Amino acid sequence: MFHGSMVALVTPMREDGAVDDDSLAGLIECHVSQGTDAIVAVGTTGESATLDEEEHCALIRRCVELAAGRLPVIAGTGANATSEAIRLTRCAMEAGADACLLVTPYYNKPTQEGLYQHHKTVAEAVPIPQILYNVPGRTACDMRPETVERLSHISNIVGIKEATGDLDRARAILDCCGERLDLYSGDDATAMELMLMGGRGVISVTANVAPRAMHELCEAALSGDRARAEAINHRLEALHRDLFVEANPIPVKWALAEMGLIPPGLRLPLTPLSPQYHDRVRAALRQAGVLE
What we know:
This protein has helices at residues 21-34, 53-67, 82-95, 112-125, 136-139, 145-151, 167-177, 188-196, 211-222, 226-242, 250-258, 278-287; strands at residues 4-8, 38-41, 73-76, 99-103, 130-134, 157-162, 182-185, 201-204. It is α/β, with parallel strands linked by helices. The chain has a single domain, classed as Alpha-Beta Barrel (TIM Barrel), CATH 3.20.20.70. Strands 1-2-3-4-5-6-7-8 form an 8-stranded parallel barrel, surrounded by 5 helices. β1, α1 and β2 form a beta-alpha-beta unit.
């Protein structure tokens, strides 16, 4: 249903933490023109954890308006309370989003049965296409392949963003889910290999600053052109690494501000990129050819 380079879009903010609508519009225009295959709005990189429900829904609506049907909008609507996830997912559907991305419930540490029941309940409550999101490094909760396989039989659960970076895990999901579920990388550093083995794309932080290159990388990998994919990926390897020198989205928002695309705003408890990393991230941007 979705494929290629799907940008995990930042939420531009002014220095006082207010959302900057002009910069948001500019970013989406950039992604349309640079070939990005889908917008993933208000996820981890979009600072969803610091937005209240009203802001969250308003941002989804605005992204849908700005995209104007030119590329799909996938809305981050996960929550650690099932009832909240249902409300956010319903809001996204009513706003016209094409699908929703639902992170495993964080902090609660549910069992595998709890994860199954949570996602099943949201999927049954709201008929929009839904993509699972497994990122145990942030959530302290790991959805195992056997649970993914159970959920793959629910008709509107259409994919999973697997962000462990573990290619053996990716292979296990491909083997047990087959054509029922699309697999997406949530780890830029291993995304190329995941696509070459049968994944359908990447939900990418790197695509925020190098959208054209990430689109071309995905295009090459999805067509099985390893040599071309490796050549593009080589230019991006430093970005894949250095956009995580501090917690995402701290480095990528600094990088976009350095490129003149957004203001430098973040919301507490996130703080600006430490000065010791400025030259490192700047060098990665230059290696990728997106900063002079």
